[in-house]
Amino acid sequence: MGIKTISEIHINNRLTELLTIGAFDLKITTFVFGCFIKISRMIVFPNAKINLGLNIVSKRNDGYHNLETIFFPVNKWNDVLEVIPSTQNTDEFSVSGLKIDGAANNNLCLKALEYMRQHTSIPPLKIHLHKVIPFGAGLGGGSADAAFMLKLLNEQFQKNFSYSVLEKMAATLGADCPFFIKNQAVMARGIGNEFSEISLQLKSLWLLIVAPGIHVSTAEAYGGIIPKSPSIPINAIITKPVEEWRKFLKNDFEDTVFRKYPAIADIKENLYRNGAIYASMSGSGSAVYGLFKDKPEIIWSSSYVTHLEEIS
């Protein structure tokens, strides 16, 4: 919409400060944007996720597929979502950062706001989304934006919806949206919306994610899939040392996607050549990640979007 918001003027300096202090959730108290306005708890940092393993188990009667995977939050790779009261009689929405496909009025942040308004009163808002997580890369960025929008509205306007209710709201926006409500590692089944808690310790490993900017459609990803139950369930594999995951922990989408897009396969091989103890495509792609014991130093194409963090 081309709207100039306060965040567009001040966001870079504030973002640097907030990321430095690690303010990644709703426990943010007060922000002063320049000399314009003082706002309490109206900015959140939706994070990415990766899939640890992904098995397509069976085809459903409704046309979807049953799967099993582990959703793991990438807590230090974040979009920035800012919401302030609008001075207009309607909502205002603007975007900066990485490009998002599709019309602005179809953005999941607005869908989340619309859905919340079906259940409670919310005044007109000015919303600014700064995109850092690549769109359509299997990293859940859009779903995270929607889920964090629900949490922000619930917190800011004191609606007191429980996590369970928020998860049900999020499920109407996307299969993996409910994951970002609690934002903890889970085993996901069904269409990716049935969660069970897991114990998973990856602390002190380095996580490197590489997004080559290749769009892989859902139809393409599922095109070569023959559903089958895995010989070893994912929740059993992750009890093994990470060094053994390479032999057992698979993403069923990789064979089809790698055949059509060799550049994505090359990223995975490059990660292993440079010391990854485990590497995989996330979701249906096209982002690929590697887990390392030591901080990796790899030079990638300037057209790739990369993220490196030490898991804490």
TrEMBL record:
Residue positions binding ATP: P134, F135, G136, A137, G138, L139, G140, G141, G142, S143, A144
The family this protein is said to belong to: Belongs to the GHMP kinase family. IspE subfamily.
Keyword Kinase recorded: yes
Highest taxon in the source lineage: Bacteria
Every GHMP kinase N-terminal domain range: 107-181
Record SUPFAM superfamilies: GHMP Kinase, C-terminal domain (SSF55060), Ribosomal protein S5 domain 2-like (SSF54211)
Name of the protein in its database record: 4-diphosphocytidyl-2-C-methyl-D-erythritol kinase
Top EC class, one word: transferase
GHMP kinase C-terminal domain span: 242-297
Record keywords: ATP-binding, Isoprene biosynthesis, Kinase, Nucleotide-binding, Transferase
Job description of the protein: Catalyzes the phosphorylation of the position 2 hydroxy group of 4-diphosphocytidyl-2C-methyl-D-erythritol.
Gene Ontology biological process terms from the UniProt entry: isopentenyl diphosphate biosynthetic process, methylerythritol 4-phosphate pathway; terpenoid biosynthetic process
Entry annotation: catalytic residues: K49, D176
Molecular functions (GO terms): 4-(cytidine 5'-diphospho)-2-C-methyl-D-erythritol kinase activity; ATP binding
Organism encoding this protein: Alkalitalea saponilacus
Short name of any one Pfam family annotated for the protein: GHMP_kinases_N
Enzyme Commission number(s) of this protein: 2.7.1.148
